[in-house]
Design a protein that fits this description.
This protein has 309 residues and is of the alpha/beta class. The chain folds into two domains: 100 residues, Arc Repressor Mutant, subunit A (Orthogonal Bundle), CATH 1.10.10; 204 residues, D-Maltodextrin-Binding Protein, domain 2. 40% of the residues lie in helices and 19% in strands. Strands 3, 4, 5, 6, 9, 10, 11 and 12 form an eight-stranded mixed beta sheet that branches. The chain has a two-stranded antiparallel ribbon with strand order 1-2. A two-stranded parallel sheet has the order 7-8.
Amino acid sequence: MHPDQLATLEAIAETGTFEAAAARLGISPSAASQRIRALESALGRILVQRTTPCAMTDDGAVVLRYARAQALLAREMAAELAPASDSGAASATGAVGTSAIELTVAVNVDSLDTWFTGVLRRAAGWPYRLRLYAVDETRTEELLRSGRVMAAISAAPTRVAGCRVERLGAMTYAPVVAASLLAGTGAGSVAELPMLRFDADDDLQDLALRAAGLPVPPPRAHVPTTSGFLAAIEAGLGWGVFPQDRLADHPDLVPVPGLATVERELFWHRWSIASTSLDRLTEAVRESFGPGRQPSRGSRTSRASRAST
């Protein structure tokens, strides 16, 4: 596989068309097409679906992941071979150029709003670009398999091909409701309280109800932002499950009677290549998550059995 062929495959994946990929690379669309046909012929696999926009086949996703891994290693090598004065200045200021290493990471929203901010603080001094994808933790594996991201926070412990995985720990979620709603007429039990859901992938309310042996009603509303979801609970629109770390400043929210906290096990997935930038990112994730996140007493641990992709 020639580097030009892999670069063309990556450009098509990112731009969606042969024409846009060719413009990015400074070649003609026919040259881009010839490169992909030659790569497909050499591998004996169809890599690109010629649709609008273009899409990677399953085989194409595998090759794309390795193409991006090769590109990452090439940039790391270039950075290591750069004059010491250039690399030292970039490291000291946190400045990044157009050819800088880019780390792509899939992170669930709750992590991004809580402990992952520690990673962002550390990244401020890195000579890397950082591209984050906010995705539910039960869906981040899909981005790893497709090659769109190099690393991901996931609820699944199963290793993705070409990656390594390690357990981080558990995030604690508490079922909470506005005290005013709980005190309202006809709201004497959780079965009578309206339920909220963050989005279609959010299963935490369902887990809390099932652990208590209660049926799962349709949600009163979907509120797909963290601040909006919290505001909806505080306004009395319904009850919801929210990260326990963020409840200290909201005294008007009280536990939902009869429901225990829910623990979401989280795992760190990353490409298995020997990469200094990914090693640095991994260490920042470990330090930011911290060793103290363990299931609390009376909670229900939510493991990978409910985190299918």
